[in-house]
Amino acid sequence: MKKIFLGLLVFALISVSGNVFAAKEKPFRGKITYRISYDAENLPEGASEMMPKTMSLYVGENITKQVLFTGMGKQSVIFDLNEKTKTSFIDLMGKKFGIKSTSEEIKKEFGMQPEASIEFLDETKDIAGYPCKKLKVTLKDRSTGDTTHAFAWYTAALKVSPDINFSDAFFNQVKGVLMEYQLDTGQGIMMNFQVTEIDSKKVPAKEFDFPEGYEMTTRENLMKMLGGM
After folding, report:
1. pLDDT digits (tens, 9 = 90+) for 13-31
2. If DSSP codes are grouped into helix, strand and coil, which group holds residue 170?
């Protein structure tokens, strides 16, 4: 069970998208909080207490930081919106690793995911006080051609960079803020994200500094190390 849980944490950390937004009149600087819930069958005993329940997104100037809080600590990702890179910082049972993904590597990861196409729908609702519209994502398996569908909600009422979702294989075409969406872990566990709170208080610049004490490695090496834990 521990190996399954550790794998899920790493998947969530390096796969979850970087979604940020801005206030109506000026670029947003602050903190966005997402609630995380799960749809799962046969969840390993004890795993639910360890899995993340919230995600915080800190927004600065051309940089963002995502933090997942788990029963084993917090894991973070820093996104450089100019260079289109991301750096993940993973603390697993006292062992700290950092993984930097270049723009080219992120695009290569897209090719390993199902092919995605998006249809923007007219249905609307409010989330955290913002008007949102629904979108439909059609995912096509690159090997079998089989398709599945998923739905999400986004808002275009807020000023946002057109590249704000650059690191998301499925939602990078969305020129708005994802307010409610799902993430399939591939292990029979679906993670559901929904914005619950928006704080426009400016985030200190030091919040985006790379933390010390992390060993830089690659995703492949980390997965190999997890296999032996």
Report:
1. 555 544 444 334 578 788 8
2. coil
Identify which of 198, 192, 160 has the alpha carbon closest to the alpha carbon of residue 177.
Answer: 160
Q: Note the pLDDT tens digit of each residue in 94-150.
A: 788 999 999 999 999 898 888 999 999 999 999 999 899 999 999 998 889 889 888
For position 82, which CATH number holds? 2.50.20.10
Domain that holds residue 56: 2-227
Residue 154 gets the label, from left (phi > 0), alpha (psi -120 to 50) or beta, of beta
Total domains, the chain: 1
pTM of the model: 0.80
The confidence band for 151, taking pLDDT boundaries of 50, 70 and 90, is: very high
Evaluated on CA atoms 161, 167, 173, 177, the torsion sign reads negative
E-state strands within the chain: 30-40, 54-59, 63-70, 73-80, 85-92, 95-101, 115-127, 130-140, 147-155, 177-184, 189-199, 215-216
User: CA of 39: how far to CAs of 12, 48, 59, 98, 195, in Å?
Assistant: 15, 11, 29, 29, 18
